[in-house]
Request: fold
Amino acid sequence: MLSQSIIEDVIAAALATGGDFAEVFVEDRFTNNLALQGGKIESSLSGRDYGIGIRVFKGLQSVYAYTTDGTKEGLLKAAGNAAQAIKGNTMMKPSQLQKEIIPAAHPISLNPREVEKFRKVDIMKRAYEIAKNYHNSIQQVTVRYLDEEQNVLIANSEGKFVEDRRVRSRLAIQSIAVDGNQMQPGFYGPGAHKGFEFMENLNLEHYANEASRIAVTMLGADPCPSGKFPVIIDNEFGGVIFHEACGHGLEATSVAKENSVFANRIGEKVASDVVTYIDDGTIANEWGSITIDDEGEKARKNVLIENGILKGYLIDKFNGRRMGMESTGSGRRQSYRFAPTSRMTNTYIANGKSTPEEIISNTEQGIYTKYMGGGQVNTTTGDYNFAVMEAYLVKNGKIGKPLKGATLIGNGPKTLQLVDMVGNNLDHGAGMCGSQSGSIPVNVGQPIIRVSEMTVGGRKGDE
Amino acid sequence: MNLQEFKEKLFHLGEQHGFTDMELYYEREEKFACELYKGKIDSYDTSEVFGTSFRGLYEGKMGYAFTEKLDEESLSFLIENAKENAQFIEDEVQEEIFAGSEKYEEGNFYSTNLADVSIHEKINLLKEIEKHIYAYDERVTGTDYFMLSSGETKRAIMNSKGLNLREKKNHVGIYVSVIVKQGDQVKNGEYSKFTRNFSILKPEEIAKHAVEEALSQLDAQSAESKNYPVLLRNDAASALLQTFTPIFSAENTQKGQSALNGKTGEAISVPSLSIVDDPFLEEGLLSSSFDSEGVATVKKDIVKSGKLVSLMHNRKTAQKEGVESTGNAYKASYKGALTVAPTNLHVVPSDKSYHEIVSSISEGIVITELSGLHSGANTVSGDFSIAANGYFVKDGKIKNAINQMTIAGNFYELLNNIEAIGSDLEFSMGFMASGYIGSPSLLIKKLAVTVE
Reply:
C-alpha cells in the first residue's frame, strides 16, 4: 500500500519534535451499498476510501493527523502538523520496521468485489419477496445490502509493520406493518466477517420472516405498562443490555481517567455469581471479529467478569499508558479519520445452567423481551437505557400478550447485581457501535437471562 | 492528479463508456480538534481530507460511485462501478443531472476572522474555560470530555450541463461534559456551543453553564410515575424534534414512513406552532446557498400557524408529486446516496421566557436531557419512550432533580398538545440525525413519565 521506506521517513518526521511513539495507519477500503425499496433497487453505491492516519505520543499526550493525500509530500506534511503539537528535541530513534505476517484468522472464500452485482440484487429480491408475502398488513419492505473490503497497513516506531484485509457482509431487512393509522416496524440485520459466501448460505426465510413477524405482532400489541418488573431478556441481540450496562464502562476510554463506575475495581465483586462476561475478537468469522486490531495487536479472548468478579478491562495502547497496563488487542476505529481507542469486538454473557423454559416458568409476573433495539449509556453515572423491539407480558410462568413501546432504564452496576438466572442458549447478534473512535461493527450476545427488577417505561395509562 | 485534470479525464472516459450526462461532486475539509484534561493537552487532531463522487446517466439511469484517491485506477473504478450500478436502478422516476437554478441567493458562511484564529488561541481558550470550570465549585472532579473543534469545508458541483458551483464555510465548536461528586453521588452536565464568531465564546459563561448543569442533577429523588405536564427545555425539545424531522421529508411520506402523507395544507398541530427551514441562518451549521443537487436553497415555512405548508423535497421526490424541489437534496457526505434533509430547521420562538413557563406549572416535570433517541423513538409511528433527566416542579418552582426516568408519548399527538412555546431558541448538536435543528422550550400538556 505504501513502501516501507516512505513509512520510515514519515515515522521519523512525526518523532522530530520529541514524541516517544509514532504510528502510521494506511487504509484502502472498497464498499458496496445497495438499497431495495418496494421491490425495486433504489440506490446502488460503490466507493473507495483511502487515507492515512498518523499518531504521535509523548507521555500522556496524544496527537493525531489524517489526510487523503498519500504522496510522500502529503504524508510528511501531515506528520509535520502532528509533530508541531509536541515541543522538544528528537528524543528517540525509531526501531527498524520488521514485516510481520499474521495469517488471516477469518478466512474469506468469495470476495464480494469479485461477485457480479446482479447476484447481490438477487439475494435482496428474494429477501424482499419473503418479507412482503409474510402477511397482507406488510406495506413496506426495505432491504439493504452492504459489503466491504478494508485493507490496512499499520506500522509504528516500535518496529511493527503489519497488513490486514477485513471483508464484511451484512443484509438488513426492515418491514413495516400498517393497520389504519398504526404503523409498526420490524427489523433483522445479520452480518459476518465473511465474503459473499455469507449471503449465499444465509437463511433468508428465517430472517425475512422474522422481520415481518415482529412488525405484524407489534401491530396487535398493547401499550407496555410502566413500573418495576422482573425482566426476561432473550438471547442473541438481547446482549445489547450488557453492552450498554457494562461493556462501555469497561473500556479504557472511560476507565483510564477513573471516570467509569468500574474504575479501580479489579478483583471486586461487581455482578451476581451467575454472570461471566467475555469480549472475544477471535470467534471465527463473526461480525465483530478481527485478526489484528487497528493498532496491529492480535485479537484475543478477554474475560472481563468471571462469576461476578471483575477480571479485566478493554485496553488500547494510549489509555494503557495512563493505566500502566498492556493493550488487550482492543484498539479499534471506524477509519483512518479516527484515532483508535479501546472498543468491544464480540462481547457476550457466557452460558449458565437454566433452560429458557425454567426461567419463564419461574416468573410469576414480568416482562419478556424477545428482540431488543439499540441503547445508550452514560459511563460516568452508569445510567443506561435501551429500546425493546418485541416484548410480551409474563403471567403465572407463561408468556402472554405482546407489548409495544417499552424502554428499559437502569444503572449498570446495580443491574449486574440483579441478574438472577442465566440460560444455556448463548447466541450472538450483529450491530454497529458508535463511540469516540467512530462507528464500528460489533457483536452483542448472551443466553436468555432474567433481571429480578428493572424499570420499564411505557405508555399504558396515558390515554 | 489535480481536480480539474481528474474531472476532464473522467468525463472523457465516461463519454467513451456511453454516459450521457455526468456530474462530479467534490468536498475538501480541514479540521482541527483538541481535548484538554487537567491543564494538559489530551488529544490533538489535525486533518486535510477530500473526496469526490461521480454520478452519470447511463442508458437513462443514474449510476453512482465515489473515491478519495485521484489516480488512474480511480478513474476506471468510478466509471465501471457507476455503469454497473446504473443498470440495477429500477425507480420509476429517474434522477437527472441538473443544469442549475435561475439565481442563487448570496450567503456568507465563512468568517475570515475565525480563519485567522491560531491554534494557540484556541488552546488558550480551552485552558481559560478549564480554569473557570475547576474554580466554579469544589465538587467538580473532572471532565468526561472537553473539546474544541474547528473546521473549514469547501464543496463544489461540476457537471456536463455547465453547472459549476462552489462554496466554503467554517465553524468552531466547544463541547464539554463536567463531572461533579458529592458524597457517593456522581453526576455530569453537558454544554456545547457552535459558532462562526470566536469572540462570543466566553470562558466564564461556558464553564458556568456546564458546572451548573451538573450540580443541578445532584440530590435527585424519585417521583410518582404518572402522567405529568412536561416542559421540554430548549435543548431537549430540539433533540426530540431532530429525531422526528424525517417525518417532514417527502421521501419518507412517499415510502409510507411518515404519517404526513397527503396532509399538506391541513392542520397538524396547535395553531401557535410554526417551523421554518432556513438555509441562510447566520450561525447555522448547515447553512448553504445550494443543495446537494445544485438547486438554489430558500428559506421556507414547513409548518405555519399549525398548518403543514410544505414537505421537504429533492428533485426526484418533487417530480413524483409534480411540484418543485424545495432545495433539500442532501448527501451526508460525497459518499452518501442522495436523500432529503433539512438545512437549519427550527420552531419559531414566542415571547414567553423559560422562567415564565416554569412558574405557570402547578405540578410537572422539566426535561433537561434525553438519551437513547436513536433507539427509543419510532419515527414511523411517532411513538417514543425515551430515557430522560430533569427536575420536579411544584407550584411554579423547580424543587429537585429526579432520578433517571422515561417519557413516553407520540410525536404526532405531542404536536397537538403544545401548551406554551418559549422565547429561548437553541439548536442541538445531535450527531445521529441530519440537519441542524433548533427549538425553544415547549410545554406539553401531558406525557407518561416513569421514574426509576
About this structure: Chain A has two domains: 4-220, 223-457. The mean pLDDT of chain A is 94. Residues 4-220 of chain A form a domain with the PmbA/TldD fold fold (CATH 3.30.2290.10).
